[in-house]
Amino acid sequence: MQTGAEDKRPMWLLAGGRTRLGRALAEALAPDHDLVLTSSRGWEGEDWVHGLGTGVTTLQWDAAAPDLEARMVDDLASLSLDGAVLLAGSFPAQPFGTWTRETLEATWRINQAFPLLAAQAAAPRMKDGACLQFIVDAAIHRPFLKRLPYTAAKAGLAALVPGLARALAPRLRVVGHALGTALPGEQDDVEALKAANLLGRIGTPEDLARALRYAAESPYLTGTILTLDGGWSIK
Fold it and tell me: Which one of 135, 139, 195, 205 is separated from 226 by 20 to 30 angstroms, measured CA to CA?
């Protein structure tokens, strides 16, 4: 158990804090936060987690598990959270004409239903004044034509931010982040991505971490979407 000054480290839930952006964000926040990280799979072999320090808890939350809601509540029951960041998601290419009920439901389950269930479980465990933060996508302003189901899921999530802000006020605040490219994939054309926005560069996990810290430390901010895309959505 931690004592003394370490007790003052804020504890944040990162729902989806295992791969790519989630891992990078955990590494950016770990120096001054205790973290609760979730993944749809077990954490065996994820040695990088040990390098984050002793203030890390890992949980397995599978969006398709029939006992998901009960597991979330049970896992968080003993915790007192200073913040929560809900970033779990998938990014499937699903052009019009290829849709099926099963693929649509799978996309919406992980990108919309899962964050909402996580928010529902986390909110009662959050301290007064804490900020519940959703990672959406800059595509809510400029839809991806080959990923319309994904875009629709993120747009729906963004639309719920002001509603949740009203439902949880004044005890909690709710903020969304419409994120542009922060970690390009191996097949992405990096130079094209840089040229696609006004600032001529790709975002970084540190850019997102700064925005998350800003929202967490801004007690008069709630019910809004902050766009962090280098101007991509208005170019």
Answer: 195
